[in-house]
Design goal:
The complex is a heterodimer of chains A (about 500) and B (about 375). Chain A is of the alpha+beta class. Chain A has four domains: about 100 residues, 2-Layer Sandwich (Uridine Diphospho-n-acetylenolpyruvylglucosamine Reductase, domain 2), CATH 3.30.43; about 110 residues, Uridine Diphospho-n-acetylenolpyruvylglucosamine Reductase, domain 3; about 110 residues, Alpha-Beta Plaits, CATH 3.30.70; about 140 residues, Alpha-Beta Plaits (2-Layer Sandwich). In chain A, about 35% of the residues lie in helices and about 20% in strands. With about 375 residues, chain B is of the alpha+beta class. The chains are: A alpha+beta (about 500), B alpha+beta (about 375). The structure holds flavin-adenine dinucleotide (FAD). Flavin-adenine dinucleotide binds next to β3, α6 and β10 of chain A. The site of flavin-adenine dinucleotide has 37 residues of chain A, from β3, α6 and β10.
Chain lengths: ~500, ~375
């Protein structure tokens, strides 16, 4: 099934004459940058999942909120679809443009509006980079906790739209736990304030509904995030294992001991090797798996916890446990992990990053399953996980220039996700469904459940102009997906995988 | 180790519940959804016009269906008494991080989710919605649907699970919920410091910017009450630094469940809950003495017992960045929940119309038109 928008499966889109749309927008928005030449639009043709590309009808680069409001209202009046884009680092083709649509790029909204150290909040525009918030808060001893590995580049608006996570989310929560308020514009150009400066707001929790909604319900135009005091100290332990399963079980042991680490990450042999070649982090090449366990908080507690975790790791069969000697070594240990994707990328012309989340107890079974699938499809898979919360990032190594290899990688990826669903997990922990996993949504949810999602969408965007073709599949797509799956004689898909 | 469903008593009554909902949808009968019916005071009365409403109780649908302390996940049916759930977690040294209030032994997990109320630990640990991983919801067609799941991270589809928290049952019947649970703190110690309100505020602001193991802070009657939780070393060090007198840890459940004198005396005057940014100063309303309020959540949740002009109070709260809820007894004509701005109200109605097209789920419980 082709990944690009397919009117037969995704629904007819309104067809408007690009010249007329352009003229209309230029008339109503004379001062807004509007790109329509192919060479100018090229940089926007894909997000971080660059195997999927499409040129939009137009690219709009507004500078003011009024321009965004007018643009949305005009597109609504003209019936032109709108795809919102933050920094374009998404890994599920969520910001993939539509040929018949306008791409609304928010990168010029990059101002930090206010850091309030007393309130411990930051109010920012959507295009602000994730890391820039922590940098601006640092002089006050504060920081913004969710730290996706892409934090130097990704935008906070994109983080809200994807409910992004990071290595510190086990203890400090995901984006949804760290955003207190958002200003949004609906497709009709109406302004809504979701959440509040207090700890709750009257009415439905629309802030939660919008977080992770992938630009399908509205455009996020301003965000207030919670800032946390920087921990007094953070220490990291690196444990080596001669067996992946032992490492997986050790994760549960740490949590069972009543310790919630600041970060708890796992990498397998291939990922260790790649990271070590790239970053020289001092990783034990040759180990089957490593665990990185960061403990943070008040000095005295952290020392106690380090001792406890060390005992747990040793009891779990770690062959070596090393504690970073100083801040520099701690940063190095993390650099290996944070650069794992590009590091693996150096081992192969292309890689495809998966994002399934599973109950931790299923880790051994899923790892074995992935190894078997890797063998069957003849493609290498490196594994990097947010182990503490069961979020896995298998990286499938392939070469897009070899005819058919992308299809093989996609088929392998699809099976890994269905395996995650089969053990009680989900097809996406933090990267989103976007366009990429639209078919797997048919495996995770029943048709009536998908209908409820569509009902929620209809409350905000009844004419389906915001990011059409993403996140929630149509019934037509799901029936086609099921027919293809059955024809392929793949393991039978149950309509109700949860129960 | 992981426990299996059979270890906990309970029964699955989802079929009869679904059947009742299908019938109600056919007949357009509004349903007043109850668990233990301990929180009826919170919110509006369910409207039964033109057809008289009927009560739908989830109490028979009860029991823990899954609990794995290692995964930090519990799944529990809506009718399960909250006390039963908390006792099961305590056996494994775990708890609900948001410290839900109990307004009577009969209170259920479904009611806890639908009302979305959190206890003293809220500013530090998070609210009910922050711990919800997934939900089962019986929709307007009487079909039980699953959203979210039992894993820590899940962004497949819209977050309908969290949407149900605090929706007061107006969007569907919550039949089961999966929650993240947390280990109990190793050490808990409570303190009592005689401080004027302004000084308490100043100190809380200062401490808030440091990583101190504070897990509750409430000011009332001229004293700041603090709870420290965490590792023994940091709790001891903080105790040393902050000073003050020891306080019985039982203060916090009493505050949580509104059993303190502040709540039980003068029962006739309306109780208001003000949700404000924690640093918000005095409201500056002539008729209100801020020092007569109970300032919980380090100032982010303030309780007021007074006959006040609701309009003026709400305006002052809005200007301070928050809102005010009337906990009852609510004067005639006063909405319990702060009315929404027009545009937001419109999208609330849209969502209600989409998810509950026949208007059978707790109509009027949150706002008159929902
Ligand atoms: C090397 C690498 C590592 C990564 N590591 C992580 C990680 O650790 N954790 C993680 O969660 N993700 C990770 N990601 C994925 C990605 O960085 C996140 O999903 C991020 O949140 C996307 O932000 P963005 O600004 O790039 O959004 P984009 O890619 O521009 O957009 C993503 C989606 O959000 C929508 N959107 C963007 N801005 C808005 C807005 N203002 N209003 C409404 N909708 C909007 C778009 O329509 C699209 O659907 C990684 C990506 C890369 C390339």
């Amino acid at each position: 099934m082709n990944i690009l928008y397919d009117a037969r499966l995704d629904g007819e889109l309104p067809r408007r004459d690009p010249a007329e749309v352009r003229a209309d927008l230029a008339r109503h928005l004379p001062d807004m940058t509007l790109l329509d030449r192919e060479e100018d639009m090229r940089p926007f043709e894909c997000d971080g999942l660059s195997v999927y590309r499409a040129l939009p009808m137009l690219v709009a680069l507004p500078d003011t909120l009024d321009q965004v409001r007018t643009l949305l209202a005009r597109c609504h009046a003209l019936g032109v679809p709108v795809v919102t884009r933050g920094a374009g680092t998404g890994l599920s083709a969520g910001a993939l443009p539509l040929e018949q649509g306008v791409l609304l790029v928010l990168s010029r909204f990059a101002r930090i509006l206010e850091i309030d150290p007393e309130a411990r909040t930051a109010r920012v525009e959507p295009g602000v980079r994730n890391l820039a918030i922590s940098e601006a808060a640092a002089p006050y001893g504060l920081y913004y906790a969710p730290d996706p590995s892409s934090q130097i580049a990704c935008s906070i608006g994109g983080n809200v739209a994807e409910n992004a996570g990071g290595v510190h989310c086990l203890k400090y929560g995901l984006t949804v736990h760290n955003v207190i308020k958002a200003e949004v514009l609906t497709i009709e150009g109406e302004s809504l304030t979701l959440g509040s400066d207090a700890l709750d707001a009257p009415g439905f929790d629309l802030l939660a509904l919008f977080t992770g909604s992938e630009g399908m319900l509205g455009v996020v135009t301003e965000i207030t995030v919670k800032l946390l005091p920087q921990p007094e100290t953070a220490k990291v332990l690196m444990a080596s294992f001669d067996d992946v399963e032992k490492a997986g079980l050790a994760v549960g042991d740490i949590i069972e001991a009543g310790i919630i680490p600041g970060g708890l990450e796992m990498m397998d042999k291939l990922a260790i090797q790649a990271a070590e070649d790239f970053v020289k982090a001092g990783y034990p090449v040759g180990a089957e798996a490593i665990l990185l366990c960061e403990l943070d908080g008040v000095e005295a507690d952290v020392d106690d916890d380090c001792a406890r975790v060390r005992r747990v790791l040793e009891a779990a069969g770690a062959t070596e446990v090393r504690q970073a000697r100083d801040e520099a070594e701690r940063a190095l240990f993390w650099a290996g992990r944070k650069n794992a994707f590009p590091a693996v990328g150096r081992m192969s012309p292309d890689y495809y990053c998966m994002d399934g989340t599973i109950p931790r107890r299923a880790l051994p079974r899923v790892l074995t399953g992935i190894a078997e699938l890797s063998e069957r499809y003849g493609l290498r898979v490196a594994n990097v996980f947010h182990a503490g919360d069961g979020n896995m990032h298998p990286l499938i190594l392939f070469d897009a220039n070899q005819p058919g290899e992308l299809d093989v990688a996609e088929a392998l990826g699809g099976e890994i996700l269905e395996l995650c669903v089969a053990v009680g997990g989900t097809i996406t922990g933090e990267h989103g469904v976007g366009r990429e996993k639209i078919n797997q949504m048919c495996a995770q949810f029943r048709p009536d459940e998908l209908a409820t999602f569509r009902a929620a969408k209809a409350a905000f965007d009844p004419t389906e102009l915001l990011n059409p073709g993403k996140n929630i599949p149509t019934p037509a797509r799901c029936s086609e997906f099921k027919t293809i799956k059955q024809a392929a004689d793949a393991p039978a898909l149950t309509a109700n995988p949860h129960g | 180790m992981a426990t299996t469903p059979t270890e906990y008593p309970g029964q699955d009554a989802s079929q009869p519940l679904a059947e009742r909902i299908r019938e109600a949808a056919r007949e357009r009968t509004p349903l007043r959804i109850v668990g233990g019916d301990t929180r009826a005071f919170y919110g509006r009365q369910v409207q039964g016009r033109p057809v008289e409403s009927e009560t739908l109780s989830t109490a028979e649908h009860r029991g823990i269906t899954f609990y794995d302390p290692v995964e930090l996940v519990v799944s529990v049916r809506a009718g399960t008494p909250l006390t039963e759930l908390e006792a099961a977690l305590a056996e494994h040294g775990q708890m609900l991080g948001f410290e839900p209030p109990r307004f009577g032994e009969a209170g259920t997990v479904g009611g806890m989710i639908a009302t979305g109320l959190s206890g003293p630990r809220r500013p530090w640990a998070g609210a009910v919605r922050d711990f919800v991983l997934g939900i089962r919801l019986i929709n307007h067609e009487g079909i039980e649907q699953r959203f979210g799941g039992q894993v820590m991270k899940n962004v497949a589809g819209y977050d309908l699970s969290r949407l149900m928290v605090g929706a007061q049952g107006t969007l569907g019947v919550i039949s089961e919920v999966s929650l993240k649970v947390v280990p109990r703190p190793l050490t808990t110690h409570s303190l009592h410091l005689d401080l004027p309100l302004a000084e308490a505020r100043r100190r809380l602001a200062e401490w808030g910017r440091e990583p101190l193991p504070i897990s509750a802070a409430a000011w009332l009657d001229g004293a700041l009450h603090l709870r420290l939780e965490g590792g023994p070393s940091s709790v001891a060090a903080t105790r040393e630094r902050i000073g003050g007198d020891d306080l019985d840890n039982a203060f916090w459940p009493a505050l949580r469940d509104h059993r303190l004198d502040f709540f039980t005396r003068e029962g006739a005057r309306p109780l208001w809950r003000l949700s404000l940014p924690h640093r918000a100063p005095d409201l500056g309303l002539a008729e209100i003495d801020d020092t007569a309020m109970l300032h919980d959540w380090a100032g982010a949740q303030r309780w007021l017992r007074a006959d006040v002009d609701a309009e003026a109070l709400r305006r002052a709260c809005r200007e301070a960045g928050g809102h005010a809820t009337c906990y009852g007894p609510c004067p005639a004509g006063i909405e319990p929940f702060t009315p929404l701005p027009a545009a937001l109200a419109k999208y609330h109605r849209n969502l209600k119309a989409e998810l509950d097209p026949h208007g059978i789920f707790n109509p009027g419980r949150l706002y008159a038109d929902l």
